[in-house]
Amino acid sequence: xxxxxxxxxxxxxxxxxxxxxxxxxxxxxxxxxxxxxxxxxxxxxxxxxxxxxxxxxxxxxxxxxxxxxxxxxxxxxxxxxxxxxxxxx
Length: 89
Fold this sequence. Notes:
It is built from one helix and four strands.
């Protein structure tokens, strides 16, 4: 079984490959959960948003979120989805 660190690493590698190094330059781990019943890791990473205000104040920059599904047996990334935060300001 793939551990949590490897699941996050595989998600980050996938994001960098698909989104490009420029877009995924400041990845942050936000959430990780193991779905034991389906043998999948659910990993949420955030990246800086393209919002123009981010350039003025990068330490308070808005972030976009991506949810990854990783096969817990093989480590293969099965999906990457945009994750919308509910109730976010």
